[in-house]
């Protein structure tokens, strides 16, 4: 019997992803093809299987080791506008395959420029350096690919631009791009990279404080990588010093109850990436007595969080794998649906587009307004019944282990 699949554009979509890096979400097949075409050295004998294995993070270590494989294929992407448009277009198709209705993809355009200065070429946003293409052109190529993907696959994608810790000289140019392209697909600004030493330098702190204060004045949304490499103080600084509305990862916030409660009160949204949180060694390094994944605490306390892939090229996991992992820990449909509605609520879309997104989720999940007919008979409450409105039950979760993830 022949089974016909509906066009990807028309397939039901019910997921929202807020934390995924474009240069960490490139198809292995595309990396292999582009590297071969450009004559770049491939691992082993140059087979696709060997490339995939080289990009696989084998065991939990640290963020530096986790990100190291990116350097293998980054030269294939840098300065190539056609490749940037291609991987952006393919990214949207991959999102649609995972039933994603809306996503926010992030990247740092300045890290995708030609690595060596080229005399007589355009300024790239970093003082004193010139390259064959500019950060603006890289961004425009990405936006072009995303638009083409949305038209073909029916998944909406918007961009968050990243500042990079240790590269403070690009921060103001990132802000410029956020402002100039805010009506063309850019919805927010981020600080990514290794937490720690650069953040402890007063000069770096002052740069990001000024840039993010300016972003807030201009109405540009803000998210910050924090609580992944460093402890809860990095989350506190992100919220209080940078005015972060969302926290990328943020797992270690639970090590300080005061900081955690502040985040709950202020409805700070946590962008949770289950597989990468283990492969970066973050969960293993928690100082709490229990090694339960922080997302369980978030769920129990009603914290706002979303479910994300982070860098699927490195984790070799798709969004459905993140959901399967959480399901294996006891998360039920209510927990997963709530995460998607929370992601939509905390997305960086304009209010009218956010309302449309929420309406799309309601349709996908079959959320309708029910009313009891006036002539229907309902049992009267017993005299001993409490007149107070019952509180909604929290989804019940039980913790499995990372070792049981298969």
UniProtKB/TrEMBL annotation:
GO terms classed as biological process: adenosine catabolic process; hypoxanthine salvage; inosine biosynthetic process; negative regulation of adenosine receptor signaling pathway; purine ribonucleoside monophosphate biosynthetic process
Presence of keyword Hydrolase: yes
Protein name (record): Adenosine deaminase
Family: Belongs to the metallo-dependent hydrolases superfamily. Adenosine and AMP deaminases family.
Topological type in the membrane: Peripheral membrane protein
Biased composition (Low complexity): 376-390
InterPro entries found in the cross-reference section: A/AMP_deam_AS, A_deaminase_dom, Ado/ade_deaminase, Metal_Hydrolase
Residue ranges occupied by any Adenosine deaminase domain in the UniProt entry: 15-362
Keywords for this protein: Hydrolase, Metal-binding, Zinc
Subcellular location: Cell membrane
EC number(s) per entry: 3.5.4.4
Keyword presence, Hydrolase: yes
Molecular function terms, GO-annotated: adenosine deaminase activity; metal ion binding
Requisite cofactors: Zn(2+)
Gene3D superfamilies the record matches: Metal-dependent hydrolases
